[in-house]
Write a structure and sequence with these properties.
alpha/beta
């Protein structure tokens, strides 16, 4: 059985592999205005409450796992539709942000959210033995909900990210900083130091005695 990694690590990896390693290997996390707002926004979503809204059962803060994929975490909201189909909803603080494009031209913000949401769907499918064809990302500030279809392409991408993230966290390697448009609003910018000269030693490994 794989050692489980947090679902959130997948979102961090897609956005920035170095950020993922700093958070999940070095256990480094710094609050800024963006992360504080996000924490507050998730409080109700992760409350563990259950309610019935217009015939849809709403589960908040549901524990999710996949033994097959080595994943563990919580779903902000999982709606159980009238026919019992699970529909995961990931809450994001603030309005939808300006795109940040990766080397392949894809919006890293959207892709990171979609991969994390799809991974939640894979967990639900394993846990409940039911297909989960779609979910949604809800932007709290703008109160807009973007539906996400879990296509074969997205599922394949998510499985690829899961494998690579497992490999990264097990290796304890620290990827090089990206030093691009992702950095200014990152809460770890002072820890990451993307402008600093490159160092050859892995800061996660102790130095050998001489």
């Amino acid at each position: 059985m794989l050692e489980p990694i947090p679902l959130s690590a997948l979102q961090h990896f897609v956005y920035c592999p170095r950020q993922c390693a700093l958070i999940h290997v070095e256990q480094s996390w710094s609050e800024n205005a963006f992360t504080t707002r996000g924490t507050l926004a998730h409080e109700r979503a992760d409350s563990g409450e259950r309610e019935l809204l217009e015939g849809v059962r709403v589960l908040r803060g549901l524990s999710l796992y996949s033994d097959r994929l080595g994943l563990i975490g919580r779903g902000d909201v999982v709606e159980l539709l009238r026919d019992g189909t699970p529909f995961p909803v990931e809450y994001k603080s603030g309005a939808k942000k300006k795109p940040i494009l990766g080397s392949d031209g894809l919006n890293l913000l959207t892709l990171a959210d979609d991969v994390q949401l799809c991974a939640q769907a894979l967990c639900l499918e394993e846990m409940l033995s039911r297909p989960v064809p779609r979910g949604a990302v809800y932007h709290i500030k703008s109160r807009r909900r973007r539906d996400v279809e879990f296509t074969l392409a997205l599922r394949d991408k998510t499985l690829e990210v899961i494998l690579i993230t497992h490999t990264l966290l097990e290796s304890r390697d620290l990827p090089e900083p990206v030093n691009d448009a992702r950095c200014p609003n990152c809460s770890l910018i002072e820890t990451c130091m993307p402008d600093a000269p490159k160092r050859t030693a892995n800061p996660f490994e102790p130095l050998e005695d001489t």
